[in-house]
Amino acid sequence: MKKENPDRAIAYFDGRDARVYKALVSRLRSEEAAQNAIILVGLMAKLKKLDSCRASEEVERIQKLFPKHVGVSYRKFVLMLDDV
Question: Which residues of 23-32 are buried (b: 16+ CB within 10 A; e: fewer)?
Fold first, then answer.
């Protein structure tokens, strides 16, 4: 998190700061699945900021795509993050 903008977070995917990413790859058993999850979560975060009915519908649609592109449901993914 940055002090200048507390609504933004930066994720590092290399070095010792890559713990979350490495944990996701390990749990999802695929770098591609971990990358897809990160992309989808980022997209949902952007849509939620729009705070519109259409954006909410898109967030729901993206959540339904998780099993296909990540290998687990969105709910299971969130629970997985709680363990990381």
Answer: ebbebbeeee
